[in-house]
Amino acid sequence: MRNKMEKSHTIDLVFVLLLFCVFSMSALTVVYIGSHVYSSTVETLEYNYGHNTVGDYIKEKVRQNLSEDQIEVKTFDEKDVLCIHSLENNISYTTYIYSDQGELKELFVNDEQGFHIENGETIMEVDEVHFSINKSLLTIEICMNNQTQESYIALIGGKV
Amino acid sequence: MKHSKTGIFLMELIVGVLFFSLASALCIQIFVKAKQMNNESIQKSHASRIASNMIELYKSHELEDDNILYFDNNAMPTQQKDFYCVTLDVIDDVLKIKVTYDDKLVYDLDYYHYQQKTFEKDVES
Prior knowledge:
The complex is a heterodimer of chains A (160) and B (125).
Chain A: H1 2-63, E1 71-76, E2 79-88, E3 91-100, E4 103-110, E5 121-125, E6 128-134, E7 137-144, E8 147-154
Antiparallel strand pairs in A: 1-2, 2-3, 3-4, 4-5, 6-7, 7-8
Chain B: H1 5-59, E1 68-71, E2 77-78, E3 84-91, E4 94-101, E5 104-112
Antiparallel strand pairs in B: 1-2, 1-3, 3-4, 4-5
């Protein structure tokens, strides 16, 4: 009789422990799936913020001066620099957009002062930005978080 | 009628397990939906960028004769069939762009390019 009582108690304990284990494993699995979904959502948000913001910023700058003779790509210290020329009160200015030390930088200067790569103001973090112009088509290549994005802008504004 | 303590305990456990199963099923459904929405947002973001690039190529007359183009999972152009397929048609000067991902339409856009008029500046004035 005593043996029977002890045996049923052991089974009760094992059953509850087993159930607890299944319960905790399932809870952990649900939390793991949730964290995975959350991390992928954050990655997407970062991707959209990073690539799209840089791309849209540069495109907007170019579209404000959408003319073939205002947009130019130069190379300084083996870095592509987008030069946007403008004329204000008969004084010529140039906006330089380029990537330097992992940052997208912009410099707006009077043409007489000239371009110095270290004077640029930081816009946001980016690995690399490359520019090229081929037959009135500006190509912008943005490298960020080991992903590359390519955008085009047709320079069809005509001469000013 | 007398219920044993073990019976009540078992009942409690069953109710607990059932409640947990329902809650976790609901959570997993929400997670799956979130993942799908996340994937759709990536696809739409890529598709809109591809379409935008196609429009710029069309404006600069750089668009090739191929009316079907393929792009990989990161929206970079490829030669063979890949995740994104772009169908381009020009009908009555309207560029019709259809972007599909795994044969599912994700972006559809019509573009008409209004030709810019140029004015000669009056040199005498």
